[in-house]
Amino acid sequence: MAMPIRATSPATANLAGKRFMRCRSSASVTATRIRNFDQAFRLFSPPKERIRCSRFFPPLFAVSEPIGGASAVTYEDLTNSLENVEVFDVIGKAIRITDLWRDRKAVIAFARHFGCVFCRKRADLLASKKELMDAAGVALVLVGPGTVEQAKAFIEQTKFEGEVYADPTHSSYDAIKFAYGVLTTFTPSAGKKILELYLEGYRQDWELSFKKNTVERGGWQQGGIIIAGPGVNNISYIHKDKEAGDDPPIEDIIKACCQ
After folding, report:
1. Residue (of 257, 203, 254) closest to 228 by Cα position
2. For this UniProt entry, which residues form the secretion signal (predicted)?
């Protein structure tokens, strides 16, 4: 049996109209946010050959595998993969990365990129222990994925007292298999730490952060720390950041390098 059609009062019709307009407005805002996110993602996305998934869910590469574990490479495998990798000093001279610890012991910090606020804090933290490292005959080194010019800008801004090298091709990061992906960069703990660092006075260098090579390859890159030498295969410590700002305890670094 057909249901009777009820008359709609002007007030009810007006309320329904307002609800419809709110829904349409909300849908419009959502669509705009999606477009904006898509634009932002394309701005920071790595080259197409490194993307093999949905544009809204970029790759999250596995990290922090203990060397010597069932699925991890050995020290020898790692150093073999690094043997032909070159980095550049601040005058533009190419150096095999393994030469950084071939004849000495060194703490090598791998930055996310030269403009990264987390890396500036880490650089300060390591530099605060440089006297201990010097006394133990340990070199303090920082490698960043970027150009020699970016490395120079980093030194000028931070006054970092260790050695700084540029890896414009990210070859060392690929060889060590540091974490990479948007989901390793934007995390709740990373957001909290950014606020803490800004309160401490640290700042991201946005000009360096938005350099073409950083945007194309470095926006989602994570880093880490290795302690190695003397001897190419003599790697005594490795830390791979699981996410942005994943600093290991400084006590662990000092214990591994100087005790």
Report:
1. 257
2. none
Q: Which residue has the tokens 């060590």?
A: 176
- Exposed (0-12), middle (13-18) or buried (19+): which is 104, by Cβ within 10 Å? middle
* Cα–Cα distance for residue pair 226/236, rounded to 1 Å: 8
pLDDT digits (tens, 9 = 90+) for 175-201: 999 998 888 877 888 888 889 988 888
Residue 94 phi/psi, 5-degree rounding, is -75, 135
Q: Give the whole-angstrom CA distance, residue 81 versus residue 101.
A: 15
* Structural tokens at position 61: 């590469």
Token reading at 230: 């003397």
Q: Name the β-bridge partners of 96.
A: 86
β-strand partners of 248: none
Give this prediction's pTM. 0.69
